Amino acid sequence: MNNSLSGEPTVTVVGGGFGGLSAAAYLAAAGADVTVLEQHDRVGGHAGVIERDGFRFDSGPSWYLMPDVFERFFDHFDREPDDYYDLERLDPQYRVFWTDGDRVTVRPNRENIHEIFDSYEDGAGDALADYLDEAERNYELAMNRVIYPGRDSIREYVDSDLLPLLPRYRLFGDMDDYVSRYVEHPKLRQLLEYTLVFLGGAPHNTPALYSVMSHVDLNLNVFYPEGGIAGVVDAVADVAREQGATIETGVEVEAIRGRAGEFTLATGAGERHADAVVSNANPAYVERELLDPADRAADPGYWESRTYAPSALLLYLGVEGDVDPLAHHSLVLPTDWDPHFESIFDDPAWPENPAYYLSVASKTDDTVAPDGHHAVVVLVPIAPGLDDGPERRAEYRDFVLADLAERTGVDLRDRIVVEESACVSDFAARFGDPEGTALGLAHTLRQTGPLRPDRRGSVDGLYYAGAYTRPGVGMPMCLISGEHAARAVVEEAPHATPSAAPSRPR
């Protein structure tokens, strides 16, 4: 984004998640007077951290994927990720435990995954190679011609730049059908589809264009950043401050009034004024809680009709003793996971045979747990909107820990010395997430690309960054959304110089 602003317009960023911090960095570098107002005691949004009795847990995202996107962000400011944190390529990347007692270990090399696929189905290794090569081509096309440019409308997709995507019409079918063209074995299909959880979708409702996530997983690999994801949050915040942005924590925005050039933001600490506002708070919350009714773009029924990504039951467990054979990342999958997805999207209920994820960062980072202990996070995707009262949470917590002991042989129940949790009601109360979703809007076909909420709000001068707008869910996408929001501010600001319009990334 090559741009500059004259007159030093004031921009207030509401919320200090990845999208908000990214927008703040780009806008401050462009010459704006930027202030980030974060309601919590530290920045990061959903990418928070829990510290207690010598344990440290990333409370939200824990997978560092798409390193190229982070490199691109830092490069814009003449920096590199390793100016702020070291990265370790995980080996193994993750271990998968199936409920029938089967398990595989996925390592960061194509030979390993080729052998795994061949062991389940004749010729599946070669089919995987074809699948990953196609995923890589699609990834490069999608990132360079769609995601980075930030196409805003369906009209912008009628472009000669996108002609190479036309033969890929199959990518707009569902993911499960697409994967089945390459491999038949249900476990192999799961290995190529589990990444949909990062997008808040299911194999039957997510477009096959997200097969690119297998390139992210198996070609680009999985990393662990020094300090965990909290270390990455701190790095992005440092970049924003280095550009001149001010970050204030513990300041909750209670109302947004006015429009471009004359915004007033009500906070518990008094009124703030700005020429433009970038909201990292989600648009459903902003429209329902912060804007005057006359300024809302949609009636409440619009947000109620959206398809939300799963919520989650998260257990943060400080555990004494060994947790082998769990890896840094582990997945526990039923051999038939369709009922779990149905319990999320079709007939909301607490899953009876769940698919779930475990993070044990202490396998890689000995600073996150005391000697002789491990920091374990258990994440069970569940339907948003479920009743998660204390009794139900306690009951399901016990069920999951018993299931974990049966499926993996790792019994944590008598060794837990620290325990915290989060669930549906926490996401709703802490972040204003509709129905307590943990991820935002699911990436269904009708909520992908230009069909996601606009980065421009219902009021002139109001913009959005984060997982609810384009390009979508996940830390890398939120970083890019901040760049897109900043670009829109600059392009539409009355203070922009004639040469200020930022260039579209090539």
Summary keywords:
single chain; 506 residues; alpha/beta; FAD/NAD(P)-binding domain; Polyamine Oxidase, Chain A, domain 2; seven-stranded mixed sheet; five-stranded parallel sheet; 19% strand; globular; Carotenoid/retinoid_OxRdtase; Phytoene desaturase
Structure notes:
The protein is of the alpha/beta class. The chain folds into three domains: 10-39 and 250-306 and 441-492, FAD/NAD(P)-binding domain (3-Layer(bba) Sandwich), CATH 3.50.50.60; 48-67 and 80-108 and 221-227 and 308-439, Protoporphyrinogen oxidase, mitochondrial, domain 2 (Polyamine Oxidase, Chain A, domain 2), CATH 3.90.660; 110-217, Guanine Nucleotide Dissociation Inhibitor, domain 1. Helices cover 32% and strands 19% of the residues. The protein contains 14 helices and 19 strands. It has helices spanning 18-30, 67-76, 110-120, 124-147, 175-180, 186-193, 212-219, 228-242, 283-290, 300-304, 338-345, 390-408, 424-431, 475-492, and strands at 10-14, 33-38, 49-52, 55-58, 87-89, 94-98, 103-106, 223-225, 246-249, 253-257, 263-267, 270-274, 276-279, 311-320, 329-333, 356-360, 373-382, 416-422, 462-464. The strands form five sheets. The protein has a seven-stranded mixed sheet with strand order 7-6-15-16-17-14-18. Strands 9-2-1-13-19 form a five-stranded parallel sheet, covered by helices on one side. α2 runs parallel beside α14 (475-492). The termini are close together. The model is unreliable at 496-506 (pLDDT under 50).
